[in-house]
Amino acid sequence: MNLKLKKISTKSFIVIFASINVVAGFILGAIVTVVSLVAPEEQGAALGAWAILLFPILNGILGVVTGAIFTGLYNFLAQRFGGVELEFEASQ
Fold this sequence. Notes:
Oligomer: single chain
Strand order of the largest sheet: 1-2
Order of helices and strands: EHHE
Number of helices: 2
Distance between the termini: 14 Å
Shape: elongated
Radius of gyration: 19 Å
């Protein structure tokens, strides 16, 4: 069964996209924190302790902004060129 995705709900996409970005920011922040603890003399070591807090927050904000832009752009282009075709299989 083929279906066409004609529009994406901006609110639901932003929630998922921002959540993914928060998780990715936490992982990246944890890596930066660990690296800064291993090599504290390196330039930027002061960021290391704050990275585990700042990266998820900043990535979440970025996720909201880019999610809104992406959904708006997709919905605009899908009206003009058609949506993405998705193929589904009925399960039993």
